[in-house]
## 1
Amino acid sequence: MAEEKITEIKVQDHKSYAITGKIKIIKPDGSEEIKEGTTYLCRCGASGNKPFCDGSHKKIGF
Ligand code: FES
């Protein structure tokens, strides 16, 4: 029996969501992007590259 693959979302303390596994991101313009491995999504609102974390959480003291 094949092992079930589960995408994991880790809520990191004072920084991004770390998502490990294959995901599809659908952007506001309707374009799609497939990501594998670990993807870091912004949860502080300060990223200049949303929806991805660009490290700006450090500058704002999130
Ligand atoms: S969580 Fe890193 S820039 Fe927002």
## 2
Amino acid sequence: MSIRKGKPYPYGIHVKDMKELCAESPIIKMPAPKKVYISMSQHIGAPAIPVVNVGDKVTKRQLIGKESGMISANVFSSICGTVTAIEDIVTASGLKMKHVVIENDGRDEEIFFDNIADFEPKTIIERIRLAGIVGLGGAGFPTAVKLSPSTKLDTLVINGAECEPYLNCDYRLMIENTEDIYRGVKYAAMALGIKKIIIGIEANKPKAIEAFSKYDDIEVVVLKKQYPMGSEKHLIYCTTGKKVPCGKMPFDVGCCVQNIKTVIAIKHAIEDNKALSSTVLTVSGKGIKTPMNLRIQIGTPLEDIIEFCGGLVGETVKIISGGPMMGKGMIGTKSFTRKTNSGYLFLTKEETSLEEPTNCINCGVCAKNCPMRLMPMYIESYALNGDYANAEKYGAMNCIECGSCAYNCPAKRSLVQSISLAKNKIKEMKKNGR
Ligand code: SF4
Ligand code: SF4
């Protein structure tokens, strides 16, 4: 058993965590819906290509979308049924994506991979690729690629921080599925050829800290409750003391960070021969009758989830996919569970600010709160004036879109949206050679 305190990080903010709404609610398996809408773009990179046709009968965990390139991921059916449509759907996130629609026929069957041939790194990575596993903390980067760095790494860091307010799915998994996480972590370490394994857990999760303290080969690092502790760079600094320089990646300092749900998916792919077909997420906020932590089949409509949680109560003024800091606001409820979903929040007036932004008063609070030491007010101003060259000069591309700058801005400026826009424009300009 090895437990130590994490290195203090002087920047970042303290947010009201609201986790009490369902932190002590065990994960419940939601029954499979009548229909699933499975997106072919649930990851970073090229969309998967449908390999089924309308009218086909499919079985749970059958391949329905094939990866299309190096950075892509396979997609599997989450239920047994008949493919009724393959169509582009504009969801409540405002994005148009190809979905395979499957009508449930009630069969209780599933398809498994063969037993893994050996536990060589190459074989483990290949199984992870086949199973369609991507970073399930939200990033969606294909895990097989992340586990195949071009340089030798020395430390595997497991992200048990879950610093986003309201969300409890990682916490529940850490105390309910500790052994699955442990076994998945060991396979990830085998794939990387790494011996040093650290799990970083925020101090407000004592049961999770205790659960992992029984393993001799994982070091538990207790992190201060601070936002954004779960960001890769901050997690690496607080758990290992290593600084990931601006513009560099964790592998540049010998580290690989993996999320809790991702390592569980790895365990299921290697030991249980299962492709990824479900996820665990938190449904919370004062606008939903019963906040819950749910295991859900991928492709489940949000409207079914709302019904399962007892419906909406009071006046929900904002629906968010993910946490309130880094999640995305949604227009309505036309949304379908994806591999990377960590939660849905239904926030009432008292939980969110709807105030209109006013002029910046140059108070400097946003710069003081920025964990990346940026000057958000300047980047925003350049972005709004279309001066993307200066936005880049002021470090827009180093912004991790954590929302700390906007959290306490007295003028309620939409800093993250402006910086995110600048980042997209800068990327576009570079792509076009400007
Ligand atoms: S916190 Fe808001 S008002 Fe203060 S400097 Fe930053 S953008 Fe301006
Ligand atoms: S500028 Fe970016 S990194 Fe800095 S606080 Fe704002 S969102 Fe976070």
